[in-house]
Amino acid sequence: MPKSEIRQQIERLREEINQHNMQYYVLDDPLVTDQYYDQQMRELQALEAAHPEFASPLSPTSRVGGEVSKQFATVTHEAAMLSLENAFDEAEMLAFNKKLSDLLGIDSPLQFSAEPKLDGLAVSLLYRNGELVRAATRGDGQSGENITPNVRTIKAVALKLIGKQLPELLEVRGEVYLPLAGFNALNESQRQNNAKLFANPRNAAAGSLRQLDSTITASRPLSFCSYGIAQLEGIEMPDTQYAQMQLVKALGLPISPYIQQLESIQACFEYYRQIAAARDSLPFEIDGVVYKLNVLKLQKKAGFVSRAPRWAIAWKFPAQEVMTRLLDVEFQVGRTGALTPVARLEAVEVGGVIVSNATLHNMDEIRRKDIRIGDTVIVRRAGDVIPEVVAAVLKDRQPEFELPQMPALCPVCQSPVVQQEGQAAYRCSAGLICAAQRKEAIKHFSARKAMDIDGLGDKLVEQLVDLGLIDSVAGLYALSLEQLSGLERMASKSAQNLLDALEHSKQTTLQRFIYALGIREVGEATALSLANHFRELAAIQQADQETLMQVGDVGPVVAANIVAFFAQEENQKIIQSLLDAGISWPPIAAPDALDLALKGFTYVITGTLENYSRQQAAELLASKGAKVSSSVSAKTTAVIAGDKPGSKVDKALKLGVTILDERTFEELVK
Length: 670
Ligand code: IVH
Fold this sequence. Notes:
By secondary structure, the chain is α+β, with helices and mostly antiparallel strands. A hairpin with a 5-residue loop joins strand 14 and strand 15 (339-350). Helix 1 runs antiparallel to helix 2. Residues 82-84, 115, 117-118, 122, 138, 175, 227-228, 290, 309, 312, 314 line the site of 2-(butylsulfanyl)adenosine.
């Protein structure tokens, strides 16, 4: 091929890849599959490698990084990078609104442009004649660090602007952040490499961005969202904040999909409620909402005070991370005997609730985070996840503070604690002799996804075991009205209700029963596979390891757990007495008699369905032979989306996977 043609081919590929990037990151509307994109990228890489004379820092292939700096050069910001004033409630928002109205001498409602406040790092991007020439951190607001090679690796950042009319100069300000999926994956790989864990997505984003070796930054799935224009030359400046952002989007940079123009401060209240409600289902972390006076002329008139504009405010959510003292570490014994370290904390408000306990996960994690009793620690409570200790604040560390120690004896039954080879968990060795394990086994048995015994809550199970009324799940079905009515906080009406619920639970399914037994590592999915494969409980009880491994998702470890479970005489006895009590399930038809209309299809269920729990929906799909998976991939047949579906739907849209609503789902399983 002649040189000129190669050059053209390279140019064409770069244009096309840039266009796909724009569709994906800015418009959220990919036109091609990931595979196609990767293929174009590889083709371009091959051509550039064979013809280094055509290399360019603006090529999309340069996003893999490679540049290594000794230190970051200093950049002086032409316009200062300011921070924001905060508000925490409606009263403070009203005060902000009034102060602005007075200052501007305006009686009519002020208009605002609003968007979520991303929890990442502020970055300035400078484009000359449409090309990214510089990226810098905020630093102290007056000058920051030149991190251009690193920012180039972020796919959401356009290396070249697009559009017919490009500005001679454009400085965009925005937030570099790490989406939650990327954060979780990063910490998982840190864990596997025994490396330090990042406390939160923000810290991980900061650590990833300030790397002297840009290949490290390239390996972290950072993203970017614009929120303002600091300089513009060569095209006319739009006259509102909102229009500014539309221009930025048209030039090929991502802006918040949630941006809205609001007509009054009252509308700002409503917007806050909407974003707060959506917060937990967003695929990235936000810590509030930012409101900016929409009309630029008014912004100018309002001006600045020291480090923040008078025309903008951040309405922050209650903090999800707070500092408090770690008073002690205790160990909780779970269903399988595993001892989990639990932090006892000086009570503190996190994310709007008072917290005095938090999980420390396991001993490895404590060591990795170097958390000691007495430390000031950072406690985090995000969404409906249980609170956790994410880090220690080292400046408050005293030399006498010590790492918590795994006790040698079970804190509940005083039996020896053992660590099995190759396993992280420490366990109480007593099995069902240990009251804690017995209680957990009973709680598991009665749970909604297991035998679904309505009204048998955790507190009640603990009372029943502590009073010696039951010592295994078998005892549940022998409880009498007198025994139950005698319990604390138990009226005879609720005692009767519980008996009814117990009676009701006897009609179950083989899958639920197997799951309810609490065999180690046999979750709902495995229980379903076992039920469908063997169809009879006796067949599972008699199966040896090899036979068990013929079942789809049963590997050697799970098979060994199953064999070991049924080999225990105590377990056999319990199962027999459960059956004697009248627990039964409908027979499972032979596979050839089953209507497996959905065999070979894979579904993902997300969000809240109106008429089914996700578990029920999964059971229905599985009964038709479909596979139900928890993550969306190109192989997913369709995503069934209920209310508040979250990121799985975004992913499905990106991959072009069909999305079904509840009605269509019902048609499917009918
Ligand atoms: S506007 C002059 N908008 O919050 C206005 N900031 O607390 C400057 N941030 O340093 C900022 N999302 O890093 C603005 N939609 C948004 C934002 C946002 C996140 C960060 C930004 C800034 C900090 C101020």
